[in-house]
Design brief:
By secondary structure, this protein is an alpha+beta fold. It has three helices and five strands. The chain is globular. Bound molecules: guanosine-5'-monophosphate (5GP) and zinc ion. Zinc ion (ZN) binds next to helix 1. The site of guanosine-5'-monophosphate (5GP) has 12 residues, from loops.
């Protein structure tokens, strides 16, 4: 999609620190990490966020979670644990409107979030 930051990252128009790519997904390190491991996993299909998920496109949820699982193994996060976060809308703290899963790990994460 024109003018979408993450679509531009997928197509290399904006540089990123890529950690994984396959037919359906792309993953790269967050520019402003909040944990030692902070990776964004996105579908190549432009979907603005969780509120746009429906029966036709819900495969993307499986695709991004499968990719995140592979990265957990690559990054060695399985033994100590990790967290997936998908922010939605203003109260959820979403700032980029291309669906993305935050994969966080490498330190003890607080609960509940602030
Ligand atoms: P959100 O707040 O929408 O859940 O997450 C957006 C994330 O994208 C933030 O954690 C932010 O640091 C990250 N981000 C924003 N712009 C860029 C960028 O140009 N490159 C990378 N790698 N991450 C970005
Ligand atoms: Zn996009």
């Amino acid at each position: 999609m024109d003018n979408c930051l993450f679509c531009k990252i997928i197509y290399g128009q904006i540089p990123s620190n890529k950690v994984y790519e396959d037919e359906f997904t792309f993953a790269f390190r967050d520019i402003n990490p909040v944990a030692p491991v902070h990776i964004l996993v996105i579908p190549k299909l432009h979907i603005s966020g969780l509120t746009e998920i429906n029966h036709e496109n819900s495969d993307v949820i499986i695709q991004i979670t499968e990719t995140a699982r592979k990265i957990c193994k690559i990054e060695g996060l399985e033994s100590d644990g990790f967290r997936y976060v998908i922010n939605s809308g203003k109260y959820g703290g979403q700032t980029v409107f291309h669906l993305h899963l935050h994969l966080l790990g490498g330190r003890k994460l607080n609960w509940p979030p602030g």
